[in-house]
Write a structure and sequence with these properties.
This protein is α/β, with parallel strands linked by helices and 220 residues long. It has one domain: 3-Layer(aba) Sandwich (Rossmann fold), CATH 3.40.50.720. It contains 8 helices and 10 strands. The strands form 2 sheets. An 8-stranded mixed beta sheet has the order 3-2-1-4-5-8-9-10. Helix 1 links the parallel strand 1 and strand 2. Helix 4 packs parallel to helix 5.
């Protein structure tokens, strides 16, 4: 494996950070010494969630969390993705933006991927944020496991995709500081479509086997 990129001094802002995945990532990064700002449309809600998580985490409105951070993480529901990302454009220029969003639908037959005009949520984010460096990551990590205070580690690999080498290396570094997680470069941003869609399969597995399945890449 290549050496881990140093993430010392990197401040992370999590847009939609009061949701399950956002607050789970906030807790894990804060425990690893990475300063985090939880963003929300309601800054009071963000403050309350930050207080629940504890030291190393602050709360703010989404715009403020984005503006005051070096790396921005998008964890909002797919239905709010385009609107939220578009509003953040002035605050993301020249920054690394991690898009974790999975465009999924649910019906009586279970979860299924949704078609996205740009190809994927991550590609949509890059189209809306032309001056940012968008990286796709964290699609397959269980929010339940991230938030479980009883677990010291989360056993999973994280596929990291992007078109800027320095940006993907930085995100891999942020993955690797979370005990149990391992960041794996998985190609250009154009390959995010199938990575996002795979989440539907993992949800189906979890429902069938009452689990919180992740993925592991062999021989790397």
């Amino acid at each position: 494996m290549p050496p881990v990129t140093d993430v010392g001094g990197v401040r992370v802002g999590i847009v939609g950070g009061t949701g399950p995945q956002g607050r789970g990532l906030a807790r894990r990064w804060a425990e690893a010494g990475v300063p985090v700002v939880i963003g929300s449309r309601d800054p009071n809600r963000a403050d309350d969630m930050a207080a629940q998580i504890g030291a190393g985490v602050a709360g703010a409105a989404n715009e403020s969390a984005t503006e005051g951070s070096d790396v921005v993480v998008i964890t909002v529901p797919w239905q709010a993705h385009a609107t939220t990302v578009r509003q953040l454009e002035p605050y993301t220029r020249d920054k690394v933006v991690i898009d974790c969003v999975n465009p999924l639908g649910f019906d009586e037959r279970g979860p299924h991927p949704l078609a996205v005009a740009e190809g994927s949520a991550a590609q949509q984010a890059q189209a809306l944020l032309p001056q940012a460096h968008v990286v796709a990551a964290f699609h397959h990590v269980s929010a339940v496991l991230l938030a479980d205070v009883r677990l010291d580690t989360v056993d999973s690999d994280v596929l990291v995709l992007g078109d800027d080498r320095a940006a993907t290396d930085l995100v891999i570094g942020l993955v690797d500081v979370i005990p149990g997680l391992r960041g794996i470069y998985a190609g250009r941003l154009r390959n995010a479509t199938q990575v996002e869609a795979l989440t539907a399969n993992l949800i189906a597995i979890n429902r069938r086997y009452k689990s919180h399945a992740g993925i592991r890449i062999t021989d790397v």
